[in-house]
Fold each of these.
Amino acid sequence: MALDEFKTVAELYQKVLPALKNKKKEFTINKIYFVKEKDIWQCLLETRWQYASNLTLFDIVNDILTLREEDLLNYLQKKRENL
C-alpha cells in the first residue's frame, strides 16, 4: 500500500478515522455493538489491502464505507478461532 502523502500507516489511519467512525456507527445502528474502528481497519488491512498496490485515498475510504457486515464478522470469527 503506497500512498506518497502519508509517511506511516498510523498517519493514514488518522486521516481515514472519520470514515472508520462512520462505518462503526452504521454497524451500531444494525445492532453490532462490539465492533471498533480498529477492527474495521485490521480487517481491510489483512483482507483487501495486504497485496494491493497504488491505492488511493479514495480507494481506501471507499473500501471502508462499502465493507459488508458479513465480511467483517467472518474476519473477526476467523481471527478469534486462531487465538
Amino acid sequence: MQGNLTKRDIVLKIYDKTKFAQKEVRETVQLTLDVIAEALAQGRNVELRNFGVFEVQIRKSRVGRNPHKPETDVIIPTRAVIKFKAGKELKADLKKINLDALAASKK
C-alpha cells in the first residue's frame, strides 16, 4: 500500500500517459481544482459523473465542550461543510478493496 496521493502524483501520472509537458499538466490540474473550489465556495455542488458528487451542506449551530474546561460551554456556529458521495463506478471499485490489508497499512 502506498501513501497518500498528492497533486504531484496526479501530474506525474497524467504526464506518463499523455507526455504533455509537466508544466502544462500541473497548470491544468491546478485550474481544475480552482474551478471546483470556486464552485463549492459559491455554495454550488460539483458533480463528476462516474466519480461522485461534492455537496455543500449546512451544519447547524450547536453547543460543544472544551475538553480542558468541561464546565464551560462553547457555541459552535452554523457553518458550511463539504460532503462527498461516491458515484456508482467508484462504489463498485471500493467493494474490491482488501479491507484487512488496508486496515493493516493504516496502523
Amino acid sequence: MAITFAGRCFASDELALMRQAATDYAGLGITEISRTICEWLDWKRPNGRLKNHECRLLLERLQHQGLLTLPDLHHSGRRGPRTVTTDTRSDCQTPIQCRVGDLEPLRLALIENSDSALWRQFIQRYHYLGCRVPVGAHLRYFVYSAQGRTLACLLWTSPAWKMAARDRWIGWNPDQRAHNLQFIVNNGRFLILPWVRVKGLASTILARSARQLPHDWCQHYGYTPLLLETLVDVTRFNGTCYRAANWIALGETTGRGRMDRHHKAFGTLKRIFVLPLHRRAQQRLCATDHPNVSLTNAD
C-alpha cells in the first residue's frame, strides 16, 4: 500500500513507520510524533524546516481512515526555536588534570528541570554543533566526578531513519526497519567540557553510558534499546574514544547528523559507529515479533 499526500508518495514501509511511531511515542504527543516522522523521512521545506503541519494533517487523515491511532491532543510546551542565553555559570572553570581513577566513581545524572538551562549553555558554548531542541524521544545527562565536579554532557535521541552502512550491517528489510527502528538510540551530543583533560575519560563515560542508558530508556519509554549508534565528523575527530569503548565502525556517510539539520555540516563526511547491547542484536532487530528483551538475560 502507498499513499500520495502534499505532493509526496509514501511507500508501505514509510506508512508502517508512521503507525509504529504513533504507538511507541504516544506519550510524547502528536506534535513530537510529527516532528520525529519528518526527521526520519527527511520531509522538509526547501529552507530546511520540517513539514510539521503537513505531517500532522497526514497523520489525522490516516487516523480517520482507521490506519493508525493518535494520542489525545496536549500542549508540549513552548512553540518555535528556543534561544540559548549564556551567563557566567557556563564560563571556563579550574582545569581538571588527573587520572580517570581519581574521578571514580563517575555519576551519570539525568537532567532535571533545574539543570536544563546550564546543560544547554554548555552545549551551545562548547560543542561545535551548538544546541538544538531534540526531536522525539531523548534523554540528557550530566556526568559528575566523585568530588561533584561536572565533567561532561550527553544527549541520546531517536535514531536516523536510513543509513546504508548500518542497515546493511543489521540486515533488515524496510518493513523490519519500520517496525524495529525504535530499538536503536542515537548519541546525538557528547561533550567533555574543555577544562577537563583526563586521558581515557571519554571512553570510560561511553562504557558507563552503555550500561546505564538502556535501563533509563526503558523506564522513560517502556522498551529497552538493542543498539546504540552515532555519527562522527571525520574532518574533526577520529572516533578514538568510541573504538576504545568497543563501538564498531561500519563505514561512512555524507548525510547529516541526527541533530545538525540547521548547521553548515551538510555534506560533511561522517563515520558511523554502533554498539550492540545484546549479543544477538542484529537478529532481534530483524525479528517480525516484538524484539524487546531484558538486558540482564542477554543470551
